[in-house]
């Protein structure tokens, strides 16, 4: 039974459970000396911002101050400059006031009073001394130069740290740490067990299956004990509620029962009743040892230089480091709890940028039971490898089956480590072979809306002020199946509340700021009772101070951008299709006579065409799209992305009764493609901002119609589209912080073998073993040796010819004599190129065996300017396809023969090249020896592509679609071009009314190693 009153240990008053939680978390309002570490940090931040003139000293805002007292759009004032919105100064902030000693709390109960340097020595310390640019002593002279200026990596290192870590240099010179021979079998067995995820029973059968070879294989319990010692890495057991309400950390560390559900923390030991053991634990995987070990591996240490070595392009956003927020951080000093540290953000090339993500996942693919993985993305790694599963840093999995009530209590160990990393941790750089002080900063946190609301301590999607980025006021849908849900339309002419805004300007919303979030959060937690706390929380949309506000480098709400994956592909796209088909949540929506509705038979035909079209789309474009009508539950976010951006424009063309809905959908597709592009210019950001503003206004006009009965279409994800441009401007392209890596990690967890009785223990063991295996590979340099998968070369093994350095020709190959008609076409193409009469070339080709290749791969450059393998194009005549193979033979190429005549079968030859489309048949090599026989000076090898082109092409400007038509079901005659004229692979889709369209890949999908687990290479 849950107690109705709890005695607060500070004020000694009986409080309700909710008030008790608030007192424990934030301190008693009546006893300010007991202010928590979190509140002290927030107050110090506000003090610094007030000195900069960025925060008024007015009391916390009430209902009227939230800009709800206007009858018109709030567009009278221009939006603030970006650095004002961030509340960051253009120059480094100088603030050296220390916290008064009376602010003591049991967060610091293990600190030794009087230990450390006194105030006088602190003033003389370069770490705390204020910087005065007008002081002549600050001017550097030839006789007073910093002796460490030539060795910047030594700043902050204590002498004993330097000598201890410098011993690793001698170890590295001798080849690094070597695994003893008697442990090699142990590591190999552990690697096999973890990689294949076999059960303990299957593992125990291996010695009996191979008695002559594996007789010495260690048993499973002995294997894990030895791996714990070899890896020197283990999980930290943290007690948590049996219902996963809270973790007993921070202010809850001494509680005997859960402050939410009242369940006991401990149970009697099974063998010794006098002893008690926790009923459930959260296994936290420490971050600092893993970051240190990353730099102990020379190849990995070199990869971690990506952040500092990349060259940003002006007015272009190509990664999170091009966002305005990161650029502003480079000019700021690091503050920790109100104290300025002696360095700026990312002042060293070894400093690491991190991103936090979490989400709920059902171990058995059901929402009834969920656990919550916590992962970190290492942004110092190049984009092509940073989201691979082996490079994702898992901090642990919050056990289920229920959602945690206070997510921040599980983040407490991470916050402590981040504070330590802000000060600096001694480490060794194996790439440059010297010790240094490692810093790491959490600059972004992302996930779906409920997860981010928990991290930010906000009301979330169903609050009165549900948006985390602005203060738009939510409206209840008085009519419909969800009368208690708040919706956020821009237009609300029927809102009868006094001083209500009747229409919001989508480009001038009342944005939240960091200082305002802190002030309102402290105002909420200062409430004297539950009722007052509820009223204040309702008026602000904030539940309290987020512990992440202690973390240097995080800014509310800028560091919490909207997740594009959940926003678009899990909400907006499904909502549109549900509206058109009157299904799911909109089955009873409206009158059923709206002109945007799709006929049931039409929707069935469109749905059936989706899986059929995937056979004509290369696997590099993405996963297969299932039937969205019959297999709705199998639609992943990636499948919806492909459905919207690739298949949707073609399959929906001419299907909606009123074309304004199709044009509206096409405008969304264009905006999506701009957002998920690798690189976004600042001009594109402005187009995205205006484009989404107009799209949302049109959406409300078409589907909402200012009708209170139709309010349920104005969801929070729809409103969040208005903040996408701000997120891109602040944090870079959306692919840098969308939730696809989180979904991949969750997918890997659900596929792992689990105990039905103890699923969360199995998951904890799994993530620990993966982390231990990663540490062993890094520390002992065994990454290649322990690789069990068949190595798939990103660049295929084949032949490269001179003058074709960006092309690789791959088996199968043939040596054969070409048909006479094809010899003639090659002669007509090659003669003018080498300056030899066509007749002479034709004569040389007669009965001449030539090498013919069946595949060709294009080589591209990654964002890090590294040559990587691109599209592999199949020659259909040499490598014929089948019904189950996804087609990779149709291409876009450059030709002087124009087929952009829809009603004329004849081609037109132009002096300049134009785009054309068709099917690659083979790749013919004309060797240099043959060219030399024609008395050509400086002969070289030529590779000629034989292509069957589409005979008819036309472009639809309204949807940017290319339609093609065959001639009586046949391609045009063979056309020959130089192999370098081939651009890329294309896909194809044929609609039910016999229209055929070209599908071109214009987005990030398929061009980045982020979805490799979900793509089937069939």
TrEMBL record:
Protein's recorded name: Transposase family Tnp2 protein
InterPro entries: Transposase_21 (IPR004242)
Source species of the chain: Thanatephorus cucumeris (strain AG1-IB / isolate 7/3/14) (Lettuce bottom rot fungus)
Biased composition (Polar residues): 64-75
Region span, Disordered: 56-83, 104-146
Pfam family, one: Transposase_21
């Amino acid at each position: 039974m849950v107690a109705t009153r709890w005695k607060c240990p500070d004020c000694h008053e009986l409080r309700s459970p909710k008030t008790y939680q608030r007192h424990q978390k934030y301190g008693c309002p009546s006893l300010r000396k007991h202010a928590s570490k979190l509140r002290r940090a927030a107050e110090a931040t506000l003090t610094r911002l007030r000195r900069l003139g960025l925060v008024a000293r007015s009391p916390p805002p009430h209902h009227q101050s939230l800009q709800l007292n206007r009858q018109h759009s709030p567009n009278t004032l221009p939006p603030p400059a970006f650095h004002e919105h961030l509340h960051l100064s253009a120059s480094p902030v100088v603030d050296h006031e220390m916290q008064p000693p009376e602010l003591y709390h049991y967060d610091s109960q293990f600190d030794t009073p009087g230990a450390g340097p006194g105030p006088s020595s602190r003033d003389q310390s370069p770490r705390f001394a204020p910087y005065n640019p007008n002081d002549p002593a600050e001017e550097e002279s030839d006789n007073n130069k910093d002796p460490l200026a030539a060795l910047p990596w030594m700043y902050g290192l204590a002498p004993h740290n330097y000598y201890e870590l410098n011993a690793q240099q001698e170890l590295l010179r001798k080849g690094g740490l070597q695994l003893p021979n008697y442990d090699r079998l142990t590591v190999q067995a552990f690697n096999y067990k973890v990689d294949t995820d076999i059960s303990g029973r299957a593992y125990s059968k291996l010695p009996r299956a191979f008695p002559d070879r594996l007789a010495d294989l260690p048993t499973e319990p002995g294997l894990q004990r030895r791996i714990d010692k070899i890896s020197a890495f283990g999980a930290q057991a943290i007690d948590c509620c049996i219902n996963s309400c809270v973790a007993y950390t921070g202010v809850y560390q001494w509680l005997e029962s859960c402050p939410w559900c009242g369940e006991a923390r401990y149970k009697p030991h099974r063998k010794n009743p006098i002893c008690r053991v926790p009923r459930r634990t959260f296994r936290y995987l420490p971050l600092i040892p893993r970051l240190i070990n990353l730099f102990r591996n020379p190849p990995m240490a070199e990869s971690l230089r990506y952040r500092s070595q990349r060259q940003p392009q002006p007015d272009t956003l190509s990664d999170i480091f091009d966002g305005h927020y990161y650029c502003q951080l480079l000019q700021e000093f690091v503050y920790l709890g109100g104290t300025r540290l002696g360095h700026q953000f990312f002042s060293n090339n070894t400093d690491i940028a991190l991103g936090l993500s979490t989400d709920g996942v059902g171990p058995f693919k059901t929402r009834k039971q969920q656990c919550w993985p916590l992962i970190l993305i290492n942004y110092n790694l190049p984009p092509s490898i940073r989201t691979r599963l082996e490079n994702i840093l898992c901090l642990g999995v919050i056990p289920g089956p229920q959602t945690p009530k206070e997510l921040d209590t599980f983040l407490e160990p991470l916050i402590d480590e981040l504070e330590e990393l802000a000060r600096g941790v001694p480490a060794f750089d194996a790439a440059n072979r010297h010790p240094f002080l490692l810093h790491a900063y959490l600059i972004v946190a992302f996930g779906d809306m409920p997860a981010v609301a928990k991290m930010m301590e906000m009301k979330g999607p169903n609050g009165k002020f549900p948006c985390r980025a602005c203060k738009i006021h939510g409206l209840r849908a008085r009519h419909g199946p969800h009368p208690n849900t708040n919706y956020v339309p821009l237009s609300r002419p029927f809102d009868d509340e006094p001083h209500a805004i009747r229409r919001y300007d989508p480009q001038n919303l009342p944005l939240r700021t960091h200082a305002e979030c802190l002030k309102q959060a402290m105002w909420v937690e200062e409430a004297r009772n539950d009722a007052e706390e509820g009223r204040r929380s309702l008026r602000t949309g904030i539940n309290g101070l987020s512990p992440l506000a202690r973390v240097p480098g995080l800014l509310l709400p800028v560091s919490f951008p909207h997740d594009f994956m959940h926003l678009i592909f899990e909400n907006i796209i499904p909502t549109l299709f549900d509206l058109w088909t009157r299904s799911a949540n909109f089955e009873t929506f409206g009158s059923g006579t709206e002109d945007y509705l799709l006929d049931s038979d039409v929707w069935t035909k469109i749905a059936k065409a989706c899986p059929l079209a995937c056979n004509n789309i290369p696997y590099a474009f993405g996963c297969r799209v299932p039937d969205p009508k019959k297999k709705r539950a199998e639609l992943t976010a990636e499948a919806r992305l492909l459905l919207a951006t690739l298949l949707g424009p073609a399959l929906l063309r001419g299907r909606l009764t009123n074309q304004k809905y199709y044009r509206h959908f096409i405008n969304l597709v264009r905006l999506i493609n701009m957002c998920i592009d690798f690189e976004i210019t600042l001009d594109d950001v402005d187009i995205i901002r205006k484009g989404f503003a107009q799209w949302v206004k049109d959406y409300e006009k078409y589907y909402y119609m200012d009708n209170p009965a139709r309010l349920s279409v104005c969801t929070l994800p729809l409103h969040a589209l208005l903040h996408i441009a701000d997120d891109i401007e602040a944090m870079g392209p959306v692919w840098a912080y969308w939730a696809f890596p989180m979904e991949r990690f969750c997918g890997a967890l659900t596929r792992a073998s689990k105990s039905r009785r103890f699923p969360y223990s199995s998951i904890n063991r799994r993530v620990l073993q993966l982390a231990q295996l990663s540490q062993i590979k890094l520390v002992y340099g065994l990454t290649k040796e322990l690789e069990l998968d068949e190595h798939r070369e990103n660049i295929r093994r084949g032949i490269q010819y001179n003058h074709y350095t960006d092309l690789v020709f791959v088996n199968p190959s043939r040596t054969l004599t070409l048909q006479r008609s094809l010899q003639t076409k090659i002669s007509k193409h090659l003669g003018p190129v080498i300056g030899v009469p066509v007749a002479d070339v034709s004569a040389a080709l007669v009965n001449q065996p030539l090498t013919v290749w069946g595949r060709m791969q294009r080589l591209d450059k990654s964002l890090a300017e590294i040559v990587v393998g691109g599209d592999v194009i199949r020659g259909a005549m040499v490598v014929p396809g089948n019904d189950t193979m996804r087609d990779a033979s149709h291409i876009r190429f450059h030709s002087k023969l124009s087929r952009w005549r829809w009603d004329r079968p004849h081609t037109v030859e132009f002096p300049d090249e134009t785009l054309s489309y068709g099917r690659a048949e083979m790749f013919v090599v004309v060797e240099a020896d043959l060219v030399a026989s024609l008395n050509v000076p400086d002969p070289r090898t030529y590779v000629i592509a034989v292509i069957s082109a589409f005979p008819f092409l036309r472009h639809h400007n309204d949807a940017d679609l290319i339609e093609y038509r065959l001639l009586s079901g046949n391609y045009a005659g063979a056309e020959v071009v130089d192999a370098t004229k081939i651009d890329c692979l294309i896909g194809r889709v044929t609609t039910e009314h016999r229209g055929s369209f070209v599908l071109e890949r214009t987005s990030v999908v398929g061009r980045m190693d982020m979805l490799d687990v979900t793509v089937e290479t069939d």
